[in-house]
Amino acid sequence: VSTQSTGINTNYFTKFNLSKMTLCGGTGASKVADDHIKELCSQIKSAVETHAAKSYATFEPVAYKTQVVAGTNYFVKVKVDDGDSHVHLRVFKGLPHAGGELSLHSMQHEKTSACPLEHF
């Protein structure tokens, strides 16, 4: 058994790879937007445009992270318009027993492809 001065069995963390697990309530690693995220964004696009008070000719999800709460928070980086303009969306999807509704929680403007996707 390997222990540090704290007495923690480090073999346990290595054996079960706990050092790389997602923190409960935290966000997972950033992933490339898949078909599920593209569909989710197409469903929420009108709410995004209403919130931004503008319409987007380009609206392409690029990356996302998730956070499991009493439902799921999706943090999504979306390419909008021409150039390197992006927005970050926080979209909530409720649990099925609560109706499973999708809603735009919040939005960050004036982002670029270089901006990290973080919890907000």
Would you write up a description of this structure?
This protein is an alpha+beta fold and 120 residues long. Helices cover 20% and strands 35% of the residues. It contains two helices and five strands, in the order αβαββββ. Strands 1-2-3-4-5 form a five-stranded antiparallel β-sheet, with helices on one face. A hairpin with a 1-residue loop joins strand 2 and strand 3.
Task: List strands and helices in order, with pairings.
Layout: H1 10-15, E1 31-32, H2 35-52, E2 59-69, E3 71-80, E4 86-94, E5 102-111
Antiparallel strand pairs: 1-2, 2-3, 3-4, 4-5
Radius of gyration, CA atoms, in whole angstroms: 18 Å
Order of helices and strands: HEHEEEE
Return the average pLDDT rounded to an integer: 86
Helix content: 10-25%
Alpha-carbon distance between the two ends:
41 Å
Structural class: alpha+beta
Taken from the alpha-carbon principal axes, the silhouette is globular
Strand content: 35-45%
Strand runs, count: 5
Q: Spans of 5+ residues with little confidence (pLDDT < 50)?
A: 18-22
Strand order in the largest sheet: 1-2-3-4-5
Largest sheet: 5 strands, antiparallel
Q: Count of helices?
A: 2
